[in-house]
cyclic pyranopterin monophosphate synthase (Varroa destructor), 204 residues
Amino acid sequence: MWHIILKNKMYCVKARTAALLFVAGLKRRFLSSSSALSHVDLAGKVVQVDVSTKVRRAEAACRVDLPRDVFDLLKRNKLKKGDVLSTARVAGIQASKQTALLIPLCHAINLEHSQLFQQVTLSLDDQLSCVNITSAVTCTGKTGVEMEALTACSVAALCIYDMCKAISQDIRVQNLRLLVKTGGQTDFRRVEADETITPQGDLI
């Protein structure tokens, strides 16, 4: 009878050891794949994702094609409505802060002083008679800022159109596109963005 009890105990020990090894193997496989899971920490525990320090950035660009005579006047700052490039830059910055009012389903972003960097740059292309517009938005928030960057470029371009249309309406806004988007669930970088140099912007 004792040998039966001893045999049963040995069987239980072996079964328990096998179970522990099996669980350990599952845990190792789980932990090796948990790095790709946003709601699991390194110990395999379920956690809530921390979004308080996520930095989100987006860059966009477009181009405004002008007739040669209009471009020359703009280049020499001789248009009757004043400094077109400076006004368009301010228009782009203001528009980015009003994106949620312009795009119905776009989330409003809290524009505290330390939370959002916005920049709009305009450069003249003498060979193509056009104005190249780029914008960049960076913030710490819970939603991306690509719509703010695209809106900044769009309104800056429309401001140029408005200030030049008295001379000619043969003005075209071209090639509005997103260049870079980082900080969200998926990042995006257009190939041409590698050659796009965006200077540091103003703190709003």
Summary: The beta strands are 55-65, 116-125, 130-140, 172-182, 188-189, 202-203.
